[in-house]
């Protein structure tokens, strides 16, 4: 067994991690998944530690998942959202964070619309920082839960063909998945309209294609991203109806899929736009398992960073 | 840098494991072994529990239930270190409620691992009783914890550490003493 040890106090982006570190988190998460299946769904690891959930952007599922993860680790929790923070009074991000740190908190879980916000804070505070999404940059725990779910079903990541379909350009989920999947040896295809999936992405070592059939026909995993309706208003695609016809996964287009392909979605789903109800609720869908695994992965991440706070 | 000193060889180790197994058999009786379960604590408690179960099976024919326990989530020094090792697989494939559990570890030292193990295992249910089996009781417990079944009792200086190795994990059986720096508190 590996003698590798975890030493980071922050989790900011999968881009920063070695493959070995990503696998270490996934292995740790497997043990935390069992905790949630017990009668006593809680361990004392973070007893006496305080976690601030700092959400400068609306979020329900990620925030609930982090909160529950913190509770199951026995941490004390404070929730701060943009509308309740002094940022609305003009305080800078750094001042807000420093004031919170002065209260002796141990971990900050942070979502912020600006790419790099979590890195900026992590370099300036002693508390551990977990990035829960920073603009279009990174959402490491989402990618980790996707990797965990794929590995649980397929037994491995290396050599798998994974297609990510949708608005890649604006998606931190896509970026984080690309980094994680490539590091663990998967072959990644990004697909969607050329306005949302520029060819330039090929420079990082993925395949880009603008045709759904071509993207998914040999895929072991298809990850369908949410199409944000406001992108239509900005002219990235003509209508959701047309998007659904060309890039939506439904009973017509699913004919191209391999029989054992996994269907994933980070949620919330626009039913019958990027993914039909029939497939979202069908036997190949692992969407609700992704939610369950998200809790386990977040417990693992919080446990690991909290365990390495001492300088 | 191999400064370790062999304390017990494979033959002596096998005899000590048999002594532990015999104490368990004599406490519960052959008929009473049916609802006894061995829970090995990582790392060396896991192969030790297997060896004890083998001896009990040879002697009595009884096949004990068994599980493994990792106490990483229950340690009292969590957050005081700068690196974390991988959590190993906890597997308790039997109902802990009303079971008679024997925790198995290689060495009883400060008692802190056992304190954590008591918390961990009782999160799985409410056992009828919990006992502790160790191959080596080295002295120096810091908590009010004692072992019930013991291979050897030894006095060991606090700047030395006892290592128990098993052929299935380390290539050969043996008990060693090495120089050791206790982690700064």
Keywords:
heterodimer; A: 311 residues; alpha/beta; Rossmann fold; 2 domains; 5-stranded parallel beta sheet; 4-stranded parallel beta sheet; 15% strand; globular; B: 185 residues; 3-stranded antiparallel beta sheet; 4 helices
Describe this structure as you would to a colleague.
The complex is a heterodimer of chains A (311) and B (185). Chain A has two domains: 14-138 and 293-306, Rossmann fold; 140-291, Rossmann fold (3-Layer(aba) Sandwich). Chain A is built from eleven helices and ten strands. Chain A has helices at residues 19-35, 61-72, 93-101, 117-122, 140-154, 172-183, 212-216, 229-233, 240-247, 277-280, 287-306; strands at residues 5-6, 50-55, 76-81, 107-112, 128-134, 161-165, 187-191, 207-209, 221-224, 262-264. In chain A, strands 8-7-6-9-10 form a five-stranded parallel sheet. In chain A, strands 3-2-4-5 form a four-stranded parallel sheet. In chain A, helix 1 crosses helix 11 (287-306) and helix 5 (140-154) packs across helix 6. With 185 residues, chain B is α/β, with parallel strands linked by helices. Chain B has a single domain, classed as Rossmann fold. Chain B has four helices and nine strands, in the order E-H-E-H-E-E-E-H-E-E-E-H-E. Chain B has a five-stranded parallel sheet, sandwiched between helices. In chain B, strands 1-9-8 form a three-stranded antiparallel sheet. In chain B, helix 1 (10-32) packs across helix 2 (45-60). The A-B interface holds A 1-7, 24, 27-28, 30-31, 34-35, 38-40, 42-46, 49, 106, 303-304, 306-311 and B 70, 72-75, 78-90, 119-120, 123-125. Strand 1 of chain A pairs antiparallel with strand 4 of chain B.
